[in-house]
C-alpha cells in the first residue's frame, strides 16, 4: 500500500507481491511500448504519454492487478530509487538514474531504518577488526640504543 511521500511502498504480503503486481500494471499501461535505453534504463518508445491518457490507463491497470486506489505511479519510481540506494548506489548514481540535477531532490530516496543501521554497524565492526588484525600481525621493530 502507498505510504506517505518519502516512504518505501510495501504490500502486506511483502514487497515482492507489490512489485509483481506493479510490473504487471506497468505492462498494461504501456502496452509493449517499452525498450531498454542507455545504461539499461527502461524507457518508452516514441513520444511520451499525455498525462490524461496515462492517468486513465494507469487507473485501469492498477484496478486490474488489485493495487489500492491510492497507489500512485510515482510510488513505483520512489520504491525503485530507494531500492537502488539500499543496494549501494551513491548519491550521484541516484541523481543520474532519477534524472535529477540537485542533491536535495536525490536525497528523497535516502532512507535509514534499524536494519540498515545494523548493516552499517556490522560494516564498521568488520573494518575495525580487520585493521586490528593487520596491526597485530606486523612485526615490532626493535630499536637499538
Shape: elongated
Helix percentage:
55-70%
What is the chain-wise order of helices and strands? HEEHHHHH
Proportion of strand residues: under 5%
What can you tell me about this protein's structure?
By secondary structure, the chain is mainly α. 55% of the residues lie in helices and 4% in strands. The chain has helices at residues 15-30, 51-64, 73-86, 91-98, 103-106, 114-137; strands spanning 34-36, 42-44. The chain starts with 14 loop residues before the first helix and ends in an 8-residue tail after the last helix. The model is unreliable at 1-15 (pLDDT under 50).
Quick recap:
This protein is mainly α and 145 residues long. The protein is 55% helix and 4% strand. α3 (73-86) runs antiparallel to α4 (91-98).
Summarize the helices and strands and which ones pair or pack:
Blueprint: H1 15-30, E1 34-36, E2 42-44, H2 51-64, H3 73-86, H4 91-98, H5 103-106, H6 114-137
Antiparallel strand pairs: 1-2
Helix pairs in contact: 1-2, 3-4
Structural key phrases:
4% strand; 145 residues; disordered N terminus; 55% helix; mainly alpha; two-stranded antiparallel ribbon
Amino acid at each position: 500500500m502507498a505510504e506517505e511521500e518519502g516512504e518505501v511502498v510495501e504490500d502486506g504480503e511483502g514487497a515482492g507481491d507489490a512489485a509483481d503486481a506493479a510490473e504487471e500494471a506497468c505492462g498494461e499501461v504501456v502496452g509493449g511500448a517499452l525498450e531498454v535505453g542507455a545504461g539499461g534504463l527502461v524507457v518508452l518508445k516514441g513520444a511520451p504519454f499525455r498525462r490524461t491518457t496515462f492517468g486513465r490507463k494507469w487507473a485501469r491497470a492498477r484496478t486490474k492487478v488489485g493495487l489500492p486506489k491510492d497507489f500512485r505511479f510515482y510510488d513505483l519510481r520512489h520504491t525503485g530509487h530507494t531500492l537502488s540506494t539500499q543496494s549501494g548506489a551513491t548519491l550521484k548514481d541516484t541523481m543520474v538514474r532519477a534524472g535529477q540535477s540537485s542533491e536535495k531532490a536525490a536525497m528523497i530516496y535516502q532512507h535509514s531504518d534499524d536494519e540498515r543501521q545494523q548493516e552499517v554497524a556490522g560494516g564498521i565492526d568488520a573494518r575495525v577488526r580487520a585493521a586490528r588484525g593487520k596491526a597485530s600481525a606486523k612485526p615490532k621493530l626493535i630499536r637499538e640504543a
